[in-house]
């Protein structure tokens, strides 16, 4: 659905074929999808890609929330330091200054309690821009694009190139 939506926004006419009678009943049928980021101290292509994908997703879901009243709950995510190794990792990430404070911060137990709205006895890495949405609702929103034709109860057995695209 995401690929169809991206192509439709760029002027392509898209046909989405769904084997079942409704969309998003398999993996995208989960009640909630979580957007979060696992920061890394390694400055490599994979880490940069993951960071930029996370930042792009945040902007994209914010835009959908404003333009389409899409339910994107940007409630933040608290990754608790459940052992000394994780706490040391989180401290090193913050001390490295590789990430802006707006992206993540290390919270002590009292700050974590305030952020979570319940008693937390551990420190944690807080990512304020993370959140959740309904993958099914996201698919439904994407497929409303006028350049997308949804065909349900259609099983694809093969794709072959033709003069006018694919068949």
- Give me the number of helical elements: 5
Overall number of strands: 10
- Rounded average pLDDT: 92
Low-confidence stretches: none
Order of helices and strands: HEEHEEHEHEEHEEE
| Quaternary organisation of the protein chains | single chain
Through-space gap between termini: 19 Å
Gross geometry: elongated
Class by SSE composition: alpha+beta
Question: Helical content, roughly?
Answer: 25-40%
Q: Main beta sheet, described? A: 3 strands, antiparallel
Rounded Rg: 20 Å
Estimate the strand proportion. 15-25%
Strand order, main sheet: write it out. 2-7-3
Please give a structural write-up.
The structure is a single chain. This protein is an alpha+beta fold and 167 residues long. 36% of the residues lie in helices and 19% in strands. It has five helices and ten strands. A hairpin with a 2-residue loop joins strand 9 and strand 10. It is elongated, with a radius of gyration of 20 Å. The mean pLDDT is 92.
Compact summary:
With 167 residues, the protein is of the alpha+beta class. It has helices at 2-9, 45-68, 84-95, 109-116, 135-142; strands at 14-17, 33-35, 72-73, 77-80, 105-107, 124-127, 131-133, 148-151, 161-162, 165-166.
